[in-house]
Every structure is written in structure tokens, then in C-alpha cells.
């Protein structure tokens, strides 16, 4: 039985707790803020209710008053602290000192490559990034990013654990800024912001182009299988035929300068009366419903 | 009652015929290849069966032996010819000469801006691009792109028609190379191909990152609503906080040189035993199932 330590129990940490507990694994939770721990049972209970899960799952989640208690007997640490290199370095120094030798130390960081906070640790070989999409109990992808020091068997165990609990691990071979997911999101956002700021299309039209267009395929195929199926002559032939056009569009696309506050204001102005909290709840209900839909399809056939 | 002329009855033209006919509109179809017209009833029938539609729809689709016959009484022309500027110019010169004055002339072109083939025509004001995602009867987005000559009321009528038949029109304010959808696809593909060719991640992992990650949101929200909901302090604040990271990733991203045959080969090698035709049928079944799922959700609440 794999025991999980969740370090940092904000939204992402609590969602991780649910991922592991619903797969039957005991979860020990620590947070620097005692109030978060006091409310943990209520917060996890509400999350389970919203996700339509079995209330009994909550019994597998134990709040721990100290970091050492949370690490006691843990096989896997999932850290969810602030995205600050100095804080993360200090926290992982503690984790590496306190955790038993066989324990794997994973960070949910989206912004800091594993070398940034694990370099120089005695246990650098057992450190990796396991980056989720928020919230992980509703979106299955987990990016696994090693540093140059991370041991291959640590990556193997990470992949096996996430498959065991029903997530989808995507394994990088080496570290790269932004990992994969945010690199893909960044280029799409840059061009999106540029198009709406220049007034080529409005925000609703831009979102519709993805939501009712490209996103329809990308929800069950990736972008590469998408081009495979549009390439009756094979993908190299596809690249020969459409590559020059796609290259021209890419070379003409927006770059980093697209991320302006003015562009952000154009987006904000398009959603004048949105209650963010209520709309986040709507998003999470839709993510859950879509996950059920996609799982029912893939169980049927693939 | 709006009468539709479909000019060119390959896969996209037949799918368009189904879109309009299932909304109850009479559809007149012409193709330069008589064999295509001979098989039209069978092909449309098979499409309706696969999509689970009412077989009676087919009665609204009439093959026409000549271009003039297809245009007779038509209010809307949807052209689906080859993506060749000279061919398209000649075809639209014919359409503009033969169609009644009030008829709107739309091209499904993904590659040619409307000015390229409509400039100089007496009826340039009634010409636009109405670019679908293949196949339009399963993916609702339609990009509406005007040239500088296109009349605003033509755009209004185009938008109204596509809403009437259950598609989702996304209206551009002016023409731009690649319109919006392919610009967004191009930047995401460039970075995807670069990451797999450089071996940062394998093809399956790259596709999983979208399919089980970003694509889960983009199937029912756009990328801009996605950031709105991740920005409790407002989108300008989000851009202030995450903009520098996203800008760095964008500036570091692949450009047009990523579209190499070698990258195409990496993708092809990842799908060694895929029967393309069978997998396209699978894709279309999944698109139909996803469309039913999303429509059932949006009817419930939004």
C-alpha cells in the first residue's frame, strides 16, 4: 500500500488528496497554516460531494500537525507550496532531510524546473516535478519532468503510481522551461490575445473558434493524431503540402509582447457580469461531466 | 425559405449539404465530376445513417447537372473547389455572372483570403469566406471572413444563416492570412512538432498533454475564458503575474522551421499500425458523441 504525503493543502493540494484517496491510498496532509488543516475534513467532504464521490473516501485523508508526521511512512510526497524558488529550496531541503530514503519527492510546480529547487540536495535523484492541471481530480494529465539528476527508476515509479490512481502521466525526457503543457498554452494564448487586441475578432468569437472548432478534436485526440488523420498520404506528405502555409502563419504569429495588460483588459471587458466563483463551479461541473463522457467512450472502444 | 447551392461535392461539400438539409433547407448540388453527382444520393444517405439522422433529410438534396441549375433560385452558394487561386478566381467569375443579384457567394477555402478570388468581380460585395472545420456536420464552428469589399449586411446574413442551421459562426472584422483557426493551430503544431522532434516528449505524451489536459477545458470554454477563471484578481492582474513567464515561453517557442518532413516522420512512426480510414470513422463517431454531450449540457444550463 502506497502512503501519500500532501504538503500544502490549498485548492491543488486538496484536489490531489482526493485523487489518491479515491484510489484507496492513505493520504497524510500537512499545511503551514493550521486553519487550513482545521477545515480540511469539511473542504474535502465538499469536494467529494461536488464530484459525486463516495463520502467514505474522506476517512483515508488525515490532517497532520507537523511536516514530520505527514512524512511518517510516506512513499510519495506531493508538494504544493508557493511558486518561489527560495521557499521551494528550503522546503525541499526539509523534505529531503525528514523523509525516509525510499520516499519520492514530487513538486506540483508549474513554473520552477526541478533543478532549480533540487540541485545540491543529497536526494536530488528522488526529486521530480509532477505538474497537474487544476484541479487534478477532474483533469487527468500529470506532466512528469526530471532534472538531470532524477533517477530513471524514480520516473518509472512515478508513471506507475499515476496510472494506478487513474491519472494520465506524460513523461518528459529532460527538463525544459514551462514543461510541455504551458509551452503549448503560451503560444496559443499569445496569438489569441494579439488577435482580440488588434480587433481581428472579438473575445467570444476567438473562444468559439477553439470551443466549437479545434477543441472538439483536441478533447479526445491530440493535435498530432489530428494531423495524422488529415494526411491520407502520410504525415511527411502532409508537412510537404501544408507545412509552407503553417510555417508562414507561425512566423507571422504574435510573440511575447502580446501579453499586455491592455490585452488582458479586452478579455476582462468581454465578461462584464461574470461571477468568477460561480463560473468556476460551472467549469468544474463541466469538467466532471466531460470526464465521465470521455471515460464512458474509451471503455466502449478505442 | 433559403435555398442553398453546394458547388463541389467532395467530403466537405456533402457534409455542408447535410448541415443545410437537416435544418430543413432545400439544397442544390453541382460538381464538375458527374460520377460524384451520380453517387451523391448514396453518399449522403450513408452520411445521414452514420450521424444517426432522419433518412428523409436526403429528399431535400438535389443533384444538378449544370452550374446554372444549381444556382437557379439559390439564396446562398457554398463553394468547395480546389485550393488554387486561378481555379477559384475563374469559378467565382462564373458564379458571380450566373447567380441572381441577391445571392451570397461563400467559399469554404481554408487557404485563400476572399480578396484573392473576389477582387475585381462586379459582385465582390457579396463574397466572403465561410470556413468550416471538417466535417462541418459534426463540428459547428464556421469562420466568416470578409474582404475589404464585402458588405456588412452580407456578413449579417451569413451569421444569421449559420445560427439558423445550428452552426456557430465566428465573425472576423477583416481578412487575415489563415483566418483565426489555422493561425491558432499553426503555432500549437509548430511547438508540438519541435518538442517531439527534439525528443523532449514522445508523440503519445504530447497528444495526452492536450487530450487529457488543455483540451478538456477548450472543448467547452475557449482559451480566454480559461484564463478569466484562473484570474481571481482580474485578467489584467493575471497578465501582470503570469505574462512574463508566458512571454518567455512564447519567445522561446518554435517557429516555421519546425514544419520539417523529419518531424512529420516522427509523428508517422508513432502510429505504425493505424488504419487511417477506420480511425477517421472512429474520429467522426467521437465528434458526433461529443457534440451530443456538449449540446445536452448547454441545453441544461450555461
How would you characterize this protein structure?
The structure is a homodimer of 302-residue chains. In chain A, 52% of the residues lie in helices and 12% in strands. Chain A is α/β, with parallel strands linked by helices. Chain A folds into 2 domains: 4-171, 3-Layer(aba) Sandwich (Rossmann fold), CATH 3.40.50; 181-271, Orthogonal Bundle (N-(1-d-carboxylethyl)-l-norvaline Dehydrogenase, domain 2), CATH 1.10.1040.10. An 8-stranded mixed beta sheet of chain A has the order 3-2-1-4-5-6-7-8, with helices on both faces. Chain A is globular, with a radius of gyration of 21 Å. Chain A starts with a strand and ends with a helix. The model of chain A has no long low-confidence stretch (mean pLDDT 95). Chains A and B meet through strand 8, helix 8, helix 9, helix 10 and helix 11 of A and strand 8, helix 8, helix 9, helix 10 and helix 11 of B.
Amino acid at each position: 500500500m502506497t502512503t501519500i504525503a500532501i504538503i500544502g493543502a490549498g485548492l491543488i493540494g486538496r484536489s490531489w488528496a482526493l485523487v489518491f484517496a479515491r484510489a484507496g491510498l492513505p493520504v497524510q496532509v500537512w499545511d503551514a497554516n493550521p486553519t487550513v488543516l482545521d477545515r480540511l475534513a469539511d473542504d474535502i467532504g465538499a469536494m467529494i460531494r461536488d464530484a459525486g464521490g463516495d463520502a467514505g473516501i474522506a476517512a483515508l485523508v488525515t490532517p497532520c500537525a507537523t511536516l514530520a508526521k505527514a512524512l511518517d511512512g510516506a512513499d510519495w510526497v506531493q508538494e504544493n507550496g508557493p511558486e518561489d524558488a527560495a521557499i521551494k529550496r528550503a522546503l525541499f531541503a526539509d523534505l529531503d532531510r525528514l523523509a525516509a530514503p525510499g520516499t519520492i519527492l514530487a513538486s506540483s510546480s508549474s513554473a520552477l524546473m526541478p533543478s532549480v529547487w533540487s540541485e545540491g540536495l543529497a536526494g536530488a535523484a528522488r526529486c521530480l516535478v509532477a505538474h497537474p492541471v487544476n484541479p487534478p481530480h477532474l483533469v487527468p494529465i500529470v506532466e512528469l519532468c526530471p532534472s538531470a539528476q532524477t533517477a530513471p527508476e524514480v520516473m518509472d515509479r512515478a508513471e506507475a503510481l499515476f496510472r494506478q490512481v487513474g491519472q494520465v502521466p506524460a513523461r518528459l525526457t529532460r527538463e525544459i522551461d514551462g514543461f510541455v503543457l504551458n509551452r503549448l498554452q503560451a503560444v496559443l494564448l499569445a496569438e489569441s490575445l494579439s488577435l482580440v487586441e488588434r480587433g481581428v475578432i472579438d473575445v467570444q468569437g476567438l473562444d468559439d473558434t477553439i470551443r466549437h472548432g479545434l477543441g472538439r478534436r483536441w478533447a479526445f485526440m491530440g493535435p498530432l493524431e489530428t494531423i495524422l488523420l488529415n494526411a491520407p498520404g502520410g504525415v511527411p506528405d502532409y508537412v510537404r503540402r501544408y507545412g509552407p502555409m503553417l510555417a508562414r502563419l507561425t512566423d507571422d504569429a504574435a510573440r511575447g509582447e502580446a501579453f499586455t495588460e491592455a490585452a488582458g483588459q479586452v478579455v476582462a471587458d468581454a465578461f462584464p457580469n461574470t461571477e468568477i466563483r460561480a463560473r468556476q463551479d460551472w467549469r468544474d461541473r463541466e469538467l466532471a461531466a466531460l470526464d465521465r463522457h470521455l471515460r464512458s467512450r474509451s471503455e466502449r472502444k478505442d
